[in-house]
Amino acid sequence: MAAAGRLSFSNITALAPMVRVGTLPMRLLALDYGADVVYCEELIDIKMAKCQRVVNDVLETVDFVAPDERVMFRTCEREKGRVVFQMGTADPERALVVARLVEPDVAAIDVNMGCPKEYSTKGGMGAALLSDPDKIEAILRKLVAGVSIPITCKIRILPSLDETVSLVQRIEQTGVAAVAVHGRLKDERPRHPLHLDYIQAAAGAVSIPVIANGGSLDLVKTNKDIEDFRRTSGASSVMLARAAMWNASVFRAGGPLPLETVMEDYLKHAIRYNNHAFNTKYCLCQMLRDKVESPLGRRVQAAQTSAEISEALGLQEFYQQTQDKLQARRDAAHRGGAPERLVMDGDVTTMVVRFERREYPPHITPKMFLLEWSRKEKLQQPLYETVQRSQDRSFQSIVTVEGKRYRSTLWEKSKKFAEQAAAVVFLRVRGVPEGRIGEEDSGLVCKRKREGQPDRGAGEEDSNKRRVFEAQRETRSGKSQGVSV
Q1: Any idea which of 38-47, 321-330, 400-409 has the lowest mean pLDDT?
Q2: How far is Cα 417 from Cα 401, in angstroms, rounded to an integer?
Q3: pLDDT band, residue 456 (cuts 50/70/90)
Q4: Which of the residues 115, 211, 232, 310 could staple to 120 if both were Cys, CB 3.0 to 4.6 A apart?
Q5: Contacts of 185 (CB under 8 A, 6+ apart)
Q6: Catalytic-residue membership of 115
């Protein structure tokens, strides 16, 4: 029996992991129609290890963002307890790094051991792992021991029934919560018949749930077929790929919906969560199948933006209303009208903050305002501790003020920016001005500093030093009209 709060893989119907299809809109659509569990598309460990976890307050999502600003994985509260993160990996240590990165935001982690495509197998991942059971065991044991959420894997069958059963039994011994079995060899394609007897043998050989996969073309065409597939395969659960891609209402107990309705429901999720237009278009074309050359199909194919796709499906009004809502959130956040969420990480107060140089005058920084505030309050100078992340050499800093610690959850490209972000967190938590453009003058930083002029002394220099400084400044100004700083 599953522990409280842990995802169970017994007697479930799942959306299978599908490259370019299993993004957030399709996962939410499957949940809308009755899927119990949804898998994301396979995401490669090397790329994910470089990502930053970003809370997107505008979209109300958690985004994992690559150094090039591409969103590799996006999730939301709606699917948190039911989304499985599928990883492509051939390295136990790197797999664990990624698993711990996404662990707070997903319900389980699956290792892809079945994809036969070159983009997966060329790095020893996917179906390439089937020929290296020692590595399979090493990866799964490392993950099971290293994270608190369930670990699963998805395999294809091996050339013989005995080999397949032996592999599934070895996988069970690693402590995984379930194993999905696609009943085809790694060299076989959807046109080849499903080896149902292999799934039956695997299910009968282990005590963990076996999830049957591969029945979309021949065995599952409607919702009532799902239970038949489960029963005849002997499996605990069923996972659907192409049947769900073609019409996700296959999960709907009340029967299928017209394709146009499914496409509209999908597009609404894509618009709401700012899905990339080319990904949205790809998924819609997969739904259209042999109707892709119909008038609707031609309109979808011709569309290049989300606005144009919305127009093709008659959802212009929904698109515009959603854009207006999202823009209102952006504006509120920019004005400071939407307070950032504070999260305690041990004894450190954290906030999602990125230091944007363009938001401050040339000679003003949050660190400067924090230092002046500390002097005004007669406190010790703020103390910064900065660390660098090895995988992408990004920086994160903690600032200590009055014995309390503050940092941003985001990683910055330089040590200086990381310290500025930490200062911003403290200033916003305490409601202290930070010097942004358009901010009312607080008087914290004197005019001379605001204008970028040298500090004449804050009462610490005597009058002789001040006179020397002024004389030197006048001499310099007579020689040059510019100052290099």
Answers
A1: 321-330
A2: 18
A3: very low
A4: 115
A5: 156, 157, 158, 159, 192, 195
A6: yes
